[in-house]
Amino acid sequence: MSGLEDLYREVILDHYRAPRNRGELPVPPAHKVEGFNPLCGDEVVLYLEVKGDTVSDLRTAGQGCSISQASTSMMSAAVKGKSVQEARQLIRAFKSLMSIHETQLEGGETDGSDAEELQGVRLGDLAALQGVVKFPVRIKCATLGWNTLQQGLDEATQSATPSGSGG
Amino acid sequence: MTGLDIARIKADFPILKREVNGARLVYLDSASSSQKPVQVLDAMEHCYRDSYANVHRGVYTIAEETTAAFEGGRAKVASLLHAGATDEIVFTKNATEAINLVAYSWARANLRESDVIVVTEMEHHANIVPWHILAAERGVELRFVPVNPGYELDLTNLEQLLDGARLLAFTAVSNVLGTINDVRTLVDAAHAAGALALVDAAQAVPHLEIDVAAWDADFVAWTGHKMLGPSGIGGLWARPEILDDMPPFLGGGEMIRDVTTTGFSTNDVPWKFEAGTPPIAEAIGLGAAVDYLQGLGLDAVRAHELALTTYALDALSERFGERLTVYGPSDLERRSGVISFTFEGIHAHDISQVVDEAGVCVRAGHHCAKPLMRVLGVPATTRASFYVYNDEADVDALVEALVRAEKFFGI
After folding, report:
1. Looking at residue B3, what is its pLDDT?
2. Closest Cα partner for A157 from A3, A23, A33?
3. Domain that includes residue B10, residue range
4. Is B409 an interface residue toward A (CB < 8 Å)?
5. B157 and B82 share one domain
6. How many CB pairs under 8 A join A and B?
7. CA distance A41 to B373
């Protein structure tokens, strides 16, 4: 099962079995955003609290496969407490990771644009998800939480007043 | 265990000889789309290699040959469905397009604001979304017959639901639960309320002996690719007087009698509804698929699937007990060869991925029936579905692969 073990790395299964930042936040001040994968019915719900320029708190709900739920859990751990700008940088870096072709993975090299996005970003545990690109159907599972975060950040920062109190 | 010689049938399906991930291919997703026997592949190849031309146009020999083979496919389908006449069969792309044909032609010509269409909670999206579109456009009301805890239609309030209804549109067999609905009872209820009845028979025609006259339905939608035929062809059977009255849906070649700068007149049924060059080789391949199924006998097909479903449910229950939940009627006489299940602690997608490593193909997801999934209270199920080329060894392979999935996820 070598292929499978690339997909289901231990750290992924750990996040799936014990998801971080699971729960809800009162809305408002938190912003609620939902993401769906229409192909498989996976669902991610995020509660985002943006104070000033910081993702001060974040909780996740929803249900789905191990990849979508583990990726969302890892995402929540990675962006909580970070600045909105850092969070956006992580989103770009993670999506680049997901767009790297399998052959590049094995060669260890990426093309210019993806490499640029990844440069200087510490992915940490998130790198465990790179095995997903060998299973193209599952990439959407891995990116669901991140796309939902992007949408949530857009909405939360748009609706926020200059003083930073959420709308 | 039944009259079918499964080893011989398997030998007719070239794809079943291949391996996937180093394992024998175990195809358990026929409710999504079936595999094709060599007889169907040969018929289509013969069309393209030896006698291909457009149909209903040329007067030369091969055009005549192709037209005869194409219309022969239609005649075979008419015989399979026990239609009164061959021209009651309208070819479409699939069952979805057949339902849309009814929605765009019959329903838009006949339904007005506040008319009611009744469907059921166990419908495939193909028999829900065309009616949602119509409802939004015309102010038609859409009502749903509920599904009861026994995974069957709850007909308690059917009469009230049908009050004011112009159409009852329902599936003969659920693609998720395997529930075999009592078509005649539902059709009679629709007619008693002054409504017409549309039967989505996509999951029924491949597996059960169908008689559209005995159903007394008004519309029956079906598709070729689930019944050993090619993709790209399906169709609508409808009562001839309804087809005569229905306005054309798609305009173009083939569907006209005359065209002038000021207008057009329509061709006869069924060609009135078949604008443009039709799926020619597909109709011929479909004819070969009908021959194949009739050669086996639909009663024997049903008996085989019933026996295999019984074997599979017993094996799953024995091996996994309450960790595995099956969604479908307990009375096996009332269910088809479809087994939807969830596994405690493992998502359907992950199960499908892990069993694929053993060459086992099962569907995971919402099966294009999201309203039903909400009723069931699950985001997704894993679905194994059986057909004429499956046997007990295939079920055993599924069970073994599930054991490995359980170990893998450490449940």
Report:
1. 86
2. A33
3. 6-32+297-408
4. yes
5. yes
6. 54
7. 9
CATH number, domain containing residue B283: 3.40.640.10
Domain match, B46 and B60 both: yes
Tell whether A40 lies on the interface with B, counting CB pairs under 8 A. Answer: yes
| CA-closest candidate to residue B231, choices B282, B277, B280, B275 | B282
Answer for the pair A63, A42: CB distance below 8 angstroms, yes or no.
Answer: yes
Closest by Cβ to B366, choosing from A41, A66, A141: A41
Helices A139-159/A84-99 angle, 10° precision? 160
Is pLDDT at A78 greater than 70 in this prediction?
yes
A113 touches chain B (CB under 8 A): no
Q: What is the pLDDT of residues B6-63, one digit of tens each?
A: 999 999 999 999 999 899 999 999 999 999 999 999 999 999 999 999 999 888 999 9
With b for 16 or more beta-carbon neighbours within 10 A and e for fewer, the A13-43 pattern comes to bbbbeebbbeeebeeebbbbbebbbeebbbb
Residue B201 shares a structural domain with residue B70: yes
Among chain B residues, CA nearest to A4: B354
Query: What's the ipTM?
Result: 0.76
> Are B95 and B48 within one domain?
yes
Distance from CA of A139 to the nearest CA of B (A): 13
> CA-nearest residue of chain A to B345?
A17
pLDDT at A12: 83
pLDDT digits (tens, 9 = 90+) for B207-254: 999 999 999 999 999 999 999 999 999 999 999 999 999 999 999 998
Euclidean distance between CA atoms B122 and B173, whole angstroms: 9
Tell me, what's the pLDDT at A115?
Answer: 55
Q: Percentage of chain B surpassing pLDDT 70?
A: 99
The single residue listed with the structure tokens 């496919």 is B73
Of A1, A13, A65, the CB nearest to B349: A65
Question: Of B295, B316, B349, which residue is a domain's last?
Answer: B295
Same domain, B152 and B244: yes
Same domain membership, residue B235 and residue B91: yes
Q: Please indicate whether, in this complex, the C-beta atoms of A65 and B348 are within 8 angstroms of each other.
A: yes
Interface test with A, best of B347, B356, B409, B411 (most A CBs within 10 A): B347
> Is the Cβ–Cβ distance between B223 and B77 less than 8 Å?
no
- pLDDT confidence tier of residue A113, bands split at 50, 70 and 90: low
Chain B residues within an 8 Å CB radius of A43:
379
The number of distinct structural domains making up chain B is: 2
pLDDT classification of A102: cutoffs 50, 70, 90: very low
Boundaries of every domain in chain A: 2-159
- Residues 107-136 on B with a CB inside 8 Å of A are none
Measured between beta carbons, the chain A residues lying within 8 angstroms of B347 are: 64-66, 69
Q: Is residue B258 part of a domain?
A: yes
Q: What per-residue confidence (pLDDT) applies to B113? A: 95
Please identify every stretch of chain B with a pLDDT value under 50, giving residue numbers as ranges: 1
Fold of domain A2-159 = Sufe protein. Chain: A (3.90.1010)
Element (H, E) at B40: helix B38-50
Question: Which is catalytic among the residues B28, B368, B375, B401?
Answer: B368
Q: Does B25 touch chain A (CB under 8 A)?
A: no
In a domain, B1, yes or no: no
Respond yes or no: is residue B368 known to be catalytic: yes
Are B277 and B369 members of one domain?
Answer: no
The amino acid that residue A24 corresponds to is E
Report yes or no on B37 lying in a domain. no
Banded model confidence at residue A103, pLDDT cuts 50, 70, 90? very low
- Measured between alpha carbons, how far is A40 from A34 in angstroms, rounded to an integer? 15
Contact check, Cβ <8 Å, B379/A41? yes
